[in-house]
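Example 3.2
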Amino acid sequence: MIYRIFFFISFIFTCNCLYSQNEINKITELLDKNNLKKSESLIKSYFINDTNSINYSFLTGRLERKKGNYIIAEYYLKKCLKLDSLYSMAHAGLGTIYCINKQYNKALISMNKAIALDSSNMDFYNDRSAIYYDTNEFEKAYNDLLKAYTKYPNDEYLIHNMGTALNALNRYKEAIVYFNKVNIINPKEARNHFDRGIAYYQIDEPKKAIKDLKMAIKYNHKTILNERIELYKIYRQLALAYSEINEPKKSERYQIKALNNGWTDTK
């Protein structure tokens, strides 16, 4: 199960004569919206004579992380910390990169440093929850998500992550409450339907599970490539659900589809 990692970046830079606060905020907003081409263009334009500043290093590090260039991103964030070892956002950025690369010990060290420097930043707890989730510390992941939820009660990805953490804790009825909230915000979110379908199956509501799992298939192709659900997982779950309602032919049909799409007994 993919656990998404989502980052809510909001911070204030010190203005100087080379660029204005508005320009910095504009780049930040573009990065938040994943407009990487425009962000890169503005960073190069605004910082053409100031490539050794903390702001340039941090923004470039964040840009390169979003582009998937993790080695380059790590370089710029470490450069940022050489200029200011107490820059909490840079520590958090490194933690994110280490988590993506499954270097969980390093990720946790960096994220804990960020929280120690700024314990009021709820975004850091959201990011740390991903580390806990990936290392099967689901209770800690959920507790961190709850803290972030106080700041972002309407963010669909955060709410979904809370549901997945509760699923992992076998607290399926509570998880469904959060999945329902996501469905109101975005009824075409494939992974939310998939995870809610699993929760319904676990609480012996296979018909509701089947409905959600079919919706997951319907919307899965519209999801960005690296967040799509592997089809064999949906088909396998449908096979189990149909078996529960005594429809062996449909169960067998989806079992075959699961096998044809990469499912094996070892998965």
